[in-house]
Write a structure and sequence with these properties.
alpha/beta; Rossmann fold; seven-stranded mixed sheet; 8 helices; globular
C-alpha cells in the first residue's frame, strides 16, 4: 500500500473513533468546495486538537490568522465556549463571506469577529489599539510572514498564553537552509525566533495524515 494512503486511512480511523465531526463542520467543508476555496483547512482531528488545546489552556480569547472557510474557527469557537471570543483574520473577502455563513450555521457567529484584510495590518492595528491579551494565537496565514506574526503575537499575549504555528515542516523542506520557497524560509525564521526568544518555551511535532506530511509548533509565553 502507498504510505500516504496509509496515513489517510489512519487519520480516517482516528477521526471515526475519537472525533465528533457534526453536520455543521461537514457543511463548512462542503460549502468551501462549492465556492471554489482550496482544500487546505485543518483535518478533523487537527481541529479537535485545537479545540482541546484551547480548553486545556483555559482560553477565553483566541486570535486566529487565516480563516479560509471558518472550519478551524468553528472548532476554536467551540473550544472557548459561549462566554469566549474568537477574532479571526482573513485576507480574501470572498473567503470571509463563506466563513460567516459557516459560523452562522454552526451557531457560533455571536462569539466570532471576522476581520478582513492583510493579517499583518489587522494584527498590528489590534496591538496598537491596546487590545486585551489573547490566551491562544493560531498562526495559519502566509508562512513567509510568520516571523512578523510572532512578534505581533507577543505584543498581544500574556504569560501563560499559547502560540501555535501551523504547517512548519513543509514536507521536509524546512531542513534546507537554501530552499528557494519564501514560505519555507519564513517558517525557518519563525522556528529560530521561537527557539531563541527567552520569553517562550516551545516544541514542534511532525504530523502525517490526510493533510500529508507537515507539522506544527506550540509555544507558551513564560
Amino acid at each position: 500500500m502507498d504510505i500516504s494512503q496509509q496515513w489517510r486511512d489512519v487519520d480516517a480511523y482516528l477521526v471515526g473513533e475519537l472525533v465528533q465531526e457534526d453536520d455543521a463542520l461537514l457543511a463548512a467543508r462542503e460549502l468551501a468546495r462549492e465556492r471554489g476555496l482550496p482544500a487546505i483547512e485543518v483535518a478533523p482531528n487537527q481541529g479537535a486538537f485545537l479545540a482541546l488545546l484551547a480548553q486545556v489552556a483555559g482560553a477565553r480569547r483566541v486570535l486566529e490568522l487565516g480563516t479560509l472557510a471558518g472550519y478551524s474557527t468553528i472548532w476554536l469557537a467551540r473550544g472557548v465556549g459561549p462566554e469566549g471570543r474568537v477574532t479571526t483574520v482573513e485576507l480574501d473577502p470572498r473567503h470571509a463571506e463563506v466563513a460567516r455563513e459557516n459560523l452562522e450555521r454552526a451557531g457560533v457567529a455571536d462569539r466570532v469577529d471576522v476581520e478582513v484584510g492583510p493579517a499583518l495590518d489587522v494584527v498590528a492595528r489590534l496591538a496598537d489599539e491596546g487590545s486585551e491579551p489573547y490566551d491562544l494565537v493560531f498562526v495559519d496565514a502566509d508562512k513567509a510572514s510568520m516571523p512578523a506574526y510572532l512578534e505581533l503575537a507577543l505584543r498581544l499575549t500574556r504569560p501563560g498564553s499559547v502560540i501555535v504555528g501551523d504547517n512548519v515542516v513543509r514536507r521536509g523542506g524546512v531542513v534546507d537552509p537554501s530552499h528557494p520557497d519564501p514560505d519555507v524560509q519564513g517558517v525557518r525564521a519563525f522556528l529560530h525566533a521561537v527557539g531563541t526568544d527567552p520569553r517562550l518555551e516551545a516544541t514542534a511535532l511532525q504530523t502525517v495524515g490526510s493533510k500529508g506530511w507537515d507539522g506544527f509548533a506550540v509555544a507558551r509565553v513564560r
